[in-house]
Every structure is written in structure tokens, then in C-alpha cells.
Specification:
Helix content of chain A: 25-40%
Largest interface: A-B, 55 and 54 residues
Structural class of chain B: alpha/beta
Oligomer: heterodimer
Number of strands of chain B: 10
Order of helices and strands of chain A: EHEHHHEHEEHHEH
Shape of chain A: globular
Distance between the termini of chain B: 11 Å
Structural class of chain A: alpha/beta
Radius of gyration of chain A: 17 Å
Largest sheet of chain A: 6 strands, mixed
Shape of chain B: globular
Number of helices of chain A: 8
Distance between the termini of chain A: 25 Å
Chain lengths: ~200, ~375
């Protein structure tokens, strides 16, 4: 049995024209940039991954900072803008595009928000192996880590084993993405569970 | 099963659970001391919102610690402790007005300062921001940590304050009550904002008199600021939290914001689950403390714990006449409150962005 961790990253720019997913999101024209980017990415994910997630961790670096600032600067006290100052609200657009309901937890822990999401997902997977997504958005980038089973069976985690991994083994490009403004990686990648433990948990 | 080892809170009713209970049972609307105006009454005594929230969290934590020590259950210093903070906007006022937006999110600095101030060394921490259902989200995450045996105990701290940012935002939504908050009343016209800090200690290894029998969260995408008309997501959360094998709750502490849509949806879901009878009795706390946002679920859980402790309930004091479309279970100001018979309480929570949640608190069997 093997855990598959699939990483997708989208650089998505909202357009002035109506998006393909407009019919799925109520008042799509009122959502903020983060929700728009996440909805655009979810539209692609929906086509790539027919199996819906069982659990979603929403983990966006910088939280809703951009929209918070816009709300204050706008001077107009826009209700539509205000609701998007809640960092979980972008998840509503995600749910609508995926036509999904289920458990979703919005996590914050800057500068390690993404890592927190990954860590929670890994532990969740360890005792309840199923389709778990960690996703989020920062500026115009949306990301998704998808945890899923490659084959049937039970997974037994060893925390000690994970703790033994050393910094030297960590993939520098991945750390760079996690800690250095999340610049897009050159290509999507897939790790085995063993690689995952070495590369992420040791952080 | 998750044990509730202790709890404490600081609300507009005072800095102890006992003061909170006294206000609930004597019909004291605390909103005058809270946030009927665009300013933070807590913050007037502190330099920053971060200081304010940490201070009130420390007050709640101290109350919890004292109760644990007197019960001989002080596990807070152990190395099998996790800490989860629940909040919607944390110290947003500091970040937004001091122009430090972009340096960090606005909640985790509050948790980090709190942990340092009270000298905890948790094995694990997390910040959950599921809008006004954040506290339930934190309890749900704690249940997952227990399931994986990652920790033995989880301290949940929840806090939100109301400054210009939050007040302006809710005002823009047009859902603030003109006078009093009157949940489930026919003439309800919105919510009152409130501030609170709460601390709950949960355990998977130490038994206690109270247990969380069930906890479930469910997110939906029907709309950003209102639940689906069918209430399906909230119903799923309630079904996930309720255990039909142990019987129905005798009391519901509803989210009960006093807005038209929230209360209507909750009534609809409770009617689907329990019929339109007088039981389980439905009440709530927001008429008393105001809507304490991300802390509201923790405050409601503490109200449920107090109802179980005293084996009685309290009415929605400001609600005089029931909405005629709603079931008969609403505890209005004129409803006689009977002593006894409370074994389990259903506590619901709804948040913007389609966050729905439910928990069941019960006596340990």
C-alpha cells in the first residue's frame, strides 16, 4: 500500500470576462481575488480529479490580508468585500465549484500555514486513509496537495522514523516553495509516502 | 469519548463562568457593556488588540487552571498537551490600522503570545478560523488529534474582540439589531456584537463528569452569507454529532444570532430532527452576551456545561413573542423553566462561508 501525494499548482489570473464556472458560484462577480483564483483552480481540479475529497484543509498563507486592506481602503464599507475578510469564506467558492459538502477546516499559522495544513493532513491520513486535500491561495496562486491511496491496505505511521529524517534530506526546491514566497515550481510532482516523510515532516 | 476536564470564560457578563450563568438565569442583558457602538470596550484598557485578547485569554485560562488544581487534574504543564485557538479575526485591528498587513496572519500571533505568557509547552498547536463556527472547528480538530493519539489533552482557547474593522463590516451587512437581540422572536431584527475569551480543556485519557458525545462540522457552498434554504449542511452536522442510540438531547443551545435567516434555518433543521414539539427546549446566549463570533461556540459549550451542572436551563429573555412559523420549543421570556432532567445538550454553530457545526455535550455515563 502506498500513499500518493500529488501536488498541483496553478498561476491563475482572473479575467474581466465571465469565467467558465460562473454558473456554479452565486454572484461570482462579487467574490474577492482569492476566492476567484481558488474557484478557477477548483474548476481545473474538478476535471482532473473525479473523486471528490473526503476532507479539506484550507490553508492560505497571508490569510485574508489583501482583502482586509482593500476593505479598509475602499472607504465604502462594502458588505461583499467584508465577508471575504473571513479567511474561510473563499472555501465557499471552492465548495460551489466542486459541488461539495463535507468537513473543511481553515488553518492559519504564518509563516508555516501551508506546513500546518500538510502536517494535519498527514496525521489525518495516518488513521483514516482517504482522499484528503490541502489547498489554499496566496495572491494569484492557488495550490493543492492531494493525499490519496494508491492501493488498498493499512498505513502505519512511525513518528520516530519521521523525526529521524534530517534537514539534509529535505528537497531544497520544495522548502524554497514553502518558505520563500511560494514561487511556482517548474512542474507538478508526485512523492511516495517515504519521500513525503523525509521531505516535509522533518521541517 | 472526549472528557471535558474544565472550562472558564470572560464575557460581557464578567470574568467567570459563574457570572455568565448568573446573567443568563437572571435575564441580564449585558450588551450595554459590550459593543453597541463602534469601538472595543476591552481595548480601552489595553494598548493593542493583541494585548487585549491575550489578557482576556489569560483571565479565562487562570480560571480554568484554578478549577483544575482544585480538582487535582492539572495536566496543563504536561508534554502531551495540544493547544488550538479559535478566532475569526484575532488581532485584526492592530494589523490593519498599524499598516502591518502582509507580515503575518492576524490570529497566530495571539496564540503564540498567549502560550509564551502562560508558559505552556504544547506538543502541538493549531489555529482554526472557520468564521463563527471556529470553536466547533477547534473541537472537531481536537477530536481528530485524540483519534490519532497525537496528544492526550487539548486546551482550546477562543477569543474575538470588536473594534472598528469588525463593527464596520457587520454594519455594512445591515444585520445589526437596532435595539436588543431577540433570537427566534417574531420581531427579531438582527444581532448584537459581543466580545469573549474562553478556555476549555478536553482529554482522551482522564475521565470527567461531562463528555463531548459527538462533534461534526460540514461546509457547504450555497452562498457566502446565508445557509442553504434547505438547511441540509447544518442537518448533516447535527446528525453527525447526535447518537440515536443514547437518546435525544433535552436542551438545544442554538447559534441563535437573531437574524431572520439564521434562526429560520435552525428552526427548520431542528423541526426535521425532532418534530415541532416543545422538546428539546431551544435557547441561546446571544441576547445576553452578544454574538462573540469565533468564540461563540466555546461560550455556548460553557453555557451547556453550566446547564448540565445546575440541571436547569434559561430562557431567551429578550424574546417576547415567538415567530409564529417556528416550532413550540423556543424558550421565550415567559416560558417556565423546569429544574432537572437535562442529560445532554445539542450546541449548534453557523458561520459565513457555509460553515456549519454541531456538538453534543452530556453527562458521563
Amino acid at each position: 500500500m502506498e500513499l500518493k501525494i500529488d501536488f498541483r499548482h496553478y498561476l491563475s489570473e482572473p479575467h474581466n470576462t465571465e469565467p467558465e464556472w460562473a454558473h456554479l458560484v452565486e454572484r461570482w462577480y462579487q467574490i474577492d481575488l482569492a476566492a476567484h483564483v481558488l474557484a478557477s483552480a477548483a474548476w481545473k481540479w474538478r476535471q482532473e480529479f473525479p473523486k471528490p475529497p473526503d476532507f479539506i484543509f484550507l490553508a492560505s498563507p497571508g490569510s485574508s490580508n489583501v482583502t482586509d486592506k482593500e476593505f479598509v481602503d475602499s472607504q465604502t464599507s462594502s458588505a461583499a468585500k467584508f465577508v471575504h475578510t473571513l479567511p474561510n469564506v473563499r472555501g465557499s467558492a471552492l465548495c460551489q465549484v466542486l459541488n461539495w459538502t463535507g468537513p473543511m477546516i481553515c488553518l492559519q499559522n504564518d509563516p508555516a500555514t501551508v506546513l500546518s495544513g500538510l502536517s494535519e493532513a498527514m496525521d489525518e491520513f495516518s488513521f483514516a486513509p482517504r482522499e484528503i486535500w490541502v489547498c489554499g491561495v496566496e495572491a494569484r496562486d492557488a495550490y493543492l496537495f492531494r493525499f490519496s491511496l494508491k492501493s488498498e491496505g493499512n498505513l502505519i505511521l512511525s513518528r520516530e522514523e519521521a523525526a529521524m529524517a534530517t534537514k539534509a534530506e529535505i528537497d531544497s526546491a520544495f522548502i524554497g516553495w514553502l518558505t520563500n514566497n511560494h514561487k511556482p515550481l517548474s512542474k507538478p510532482f508526485t512523492w511516495t509516502y517515504g519521500q513525503w516523510k523525509r521531505n516535509v515532516r522533518a521541517l | 469519548m472526549i472528557s471535558v476536564l474544565g472550562y472558564s470564560c470572560s464575557t460581557a457578563a464578567g470574568s467567570t463562568p459563574e457570572r455568565f450563568w448568573h446573567a443568563l438565569t437572571t435575564g441580564h442583558d449585558c450588551r450595554d457593556k459590550s459593543t453597541a457602538r463602534p469601538g472595543c470596550f476591552w481595548q480601552e484598557r489595553q494598548e493593542s488588540q493583541l494585548d487585549t485578547l491575550v489578557y482576556h485569554l489569560s483571565v479565562a485560562y487562570s480560571g480554568l487552571k484554578l478549577s483544575l488544581e482544585s480538582a487535582g487534574k492539572d495536566v496543563l504543564k504536561g508534554d502531551r498537551l495540544g493547544v488550538i485557538m479559535a478566532s475569526t479575526k484575532g488581532a485584526i485591528e492592530d494589523f490593519i490600522w498599524r499598516d502591518t498587513v502582509g507580515q503575518s496572519d492576524f490570529i497566530s500571533p495571539v496564540l503564540n503570545r498567549f502560550i509564551a505568557d502562560v508558559k505552556l509547552r504544547p506538543a502541538r498547536i493549531a489555529v482554526v478560523s472557520n468564521a463563527c463556527a471556529s470553536s466547533h472547528g477547534a473541537v472537531f480538530l481536537a477530536s481528530r488529534w485524540f483519534e490519532s493519539k497525537a496528544v492526550d489533552h487539548v486546551l482550546i482557547v477562543a477569543a474575538d474582540g470588536v473594534g472598528p474593522f469588525v463593527w464596520q463590516g457587520f454594519n455594512s451587512l445591515g444585520i445589526l439589531a437596532k435595539e436588543t437581540c431577540r433570537p427566534f422572536a417574531g420581531d427579531r431584527d438582527g444581532l448584537q456584537l459581543g466580545e469573549a475569551a474562553a478556555a476549555l480543556l478536553l482529554s482522551r485519557t482522564i475521565p470527567a463528569d461531562l463528555v463531548i458525545e459527538g462533534i461534526a462540522i460540514n461546509s457547504e457552498g450555497s452562498a457566502v452569507t446565508r445557509p442553504a434554504k434547505t438547511g441540509e449542511s447544518l442537518r448533516k452536522a447535527c446528525v453527525g454529532a447526535l447518537n440515536p442510540n443514547v437518546g435525544a438531547p433535552q436542551l438545544i443551545i442554538a447559534h441563535g444570532t437573531g437574524t431572520k435567516l439564521n434562526d429560520q434555518t435552525e428552526d427548520q433543521v431542528f423541526s426535521q430532527l425532532f418534530g415541532r414539539h416543545q422538546t428539546p427546549v431551544l435557547t441561546g446566549v446571544k441576547w445576553c452576551t452578544g454574538h462573540t463570533l469565533g468564540a461563540s461556540g466555546a461560550v455556548d459549550l460553557i453555557a451547556a456545561a453550566l446547564a448540565l451542572k445546575h440541571n436547569t436551563s434559561f430562557p431567551l429573555t429578550n424574546s417576547i413573542e415567538k415567530d409564529p412559523t417556528m416550532a413550540d420549543r423556543v424558550a421565550l421570556s415567559s416560558t417556565s423553566i423546569h429544574q432537572g432532567g437535562i442529560e445532554r445538550v445539542l450546541i449548534t454553530s453557523l458561520g459565513f462561508g457555509g460553515a456549519n457545526a454541531a456538538a453534543v455535550l452530556a453527562r458521563a455515563r
